[in-house]
Design brief:
The protein is mainly alpha-helical. It is built from 3 helices and no strands.
Amino acid sequence: MRNENVSKENVTQVSGKLQKSVIEVQQKYGDILNLPHHVSETHPSMPIADRAAQFAPFAALTGYKEAIEETERLAEKKIERECE
């Protein structure tokens, strides 16, 4: 669904900017854009599962989760005492 506030002039301006951007990229990197992908002759490809593991979440702050849980436990205990 199109936004009613978008005029044809704005669409043309964006389209023109995009075309200009594409042309600039082609001029800048045209010599390497269509080169074949490099495949090493000495190193085997990394399995997809191992590549995906590189982006898996990790515990950047060791013990942070436990500290949060302890704070939550103490806060709940305090609320219980106040309600009695």
